[in-house]
Amino acid sequence: MKIILSRKGFDEGNARMPSPIMPDGTPLSLPIPRGRGHRYSYDDLNFRGRSLSSIIKDLYKDLYGELFPFKEAHADPDLDVERLPRQRGWRPAFGQTGGDQTHLENQGVGKGDLFLFFGWFRHTQDAGDGHLLYTGPTQGFHALFGWLQVGEFFLINCQSAAEALPAWLKQHPHAAIPDAPDAFDHNNTIYVESDDLRIGGVSLPGVSGGGTFPQFTPALRLTKPGEKRRTHWALPKWFYHENEQRRLSYHGDPRRWSADSDHAILRTVARGQEFVLNTQFYPEALDWVASLFRPAEASAE
Fold first, then answer.
1. How far apart, in whole angstroms, are the C-alpha atoms of residue 251 and residue 2?
2. Half-sphere exposure at residue 234, Cβ-oriented, CA atoms within 13 angstroms
3. Averaged over 131-141, what is the pLDDT?
4. Which alpha helices (DSSP H) does the chain contain, by range?
5. Rounded to whole angstroms, what are the CA distances from 163 to 19, 92, 166, 176?
6. Burial grade of 81 (CB within 10 A; 0-12, 13-18, 19 or more)
7. Do β-strands 50-51 and 132-134 pair in parallel, antiparallel, or remain unpaired?
8. Beta bridge partners of residue 235, listed in sequence order
């Protein structure tokens, strides 16, 4: 099995603000302003009955004192059944294309492999009048917020391929039929969840093949605690491999790695969305993944 650490959601290049960890501890990844694909508005997308536009409006105004300048969102990865009205048969799905998809192909990513989605987060609090405010260190941190184990995948590189998809999947941003018939990327791909999450061939009880973590816990944090640069991660020590060809993809350079008494410290690359780890060379990774789904006391660190 391969594990893909997949960077998604708001960042400094897309919207200039972190996604919120809601006051009840739920990590809420905000989808980037729209690119290609179906053009859902932030008014269309929901979190527990509240539109994402109202959440974003509060937080953006808290940061910049002005209105959020974007209306439409690229709602991918699509992991939450309550985010939109759904057709029968809906399942979590994730799309990728272009150079990032080429990287996944070159790494041999396919059925049974596991995406772990991460993004830029900051804690929030209720201002007392129903509005949200950021709280805690302004730089925020990187944290995991969701997952998808690949059950099947679809190549959608032409109009006929998009039309042949299951009805529920046609609403995915990467399935949108463009204005020009030849506008699909040659490797435009949608990954759909497996029936359940299997680690080392064993199903994790009660865990579906894709979804979002219900609570932020210290286990989901990637950025080293106390570190002002959120791109500096504290990972389990086994993440560092002596053979640079077997390290997390894009991170073979030994100058990016160091260690403290308990962790491998990684200075992550500024570009790239999909970082692949082959568990063939990291047997400890299977227990680590399983541990992410064990209940733990939430932390506001």
1. 16
2. 16
3. 95
4. 52-64, 98-106, 159-163, 284-291
5. 33, 19, 8, 9
6. exposed
7. unpaired
8. 264
3-state secondary structure of 62: helix
Backbone angles phi, psi at 106, to 5 degrees: -65, -30
Provide CB contacts within 8 A for 141, sequence distance 6+: 120, 121, 122, 221, 222, 223, 227, 230
Find how far residue 132's CA is from the centre of its chain.
22
Residue 75: which of 184, 191, 192, 171 has the closest Cα? 171
The backbone region for 89, taken as left when phi is positive above 0, alpha when psi lies in -120 to 50, beta otherwise, is: left
CA distances 77 to 3, 73, 130, 186, 228, Å, are 16, 11, 28, 20, 28
> What stretches of 159-219 adopt beta strand conformation (E)?
189-193, 198-199, 202-203, 210-212
Name residue, tokens 């680590």.
Answer: 288
Q: How far is CA 289 from CA 111, 147, 165, 293, in A?
A: 17, 10, 31, 7
* Cβ–Cβ under 8 Å, residues 60 and 30: no
Torsion of CA 180, 173, 98, 280, to 10 degrees: -150
Tell how far CA 168 is from the center of its chain.
Answer: 21
Distance CA 116, CA 24 (A): 22
pLDDT in tens, 192-208: 999 999 999 999 999 99
Distance of CA 135 to the CA centre of its chain: 22
Average pLDDT over residues 254-277: 94
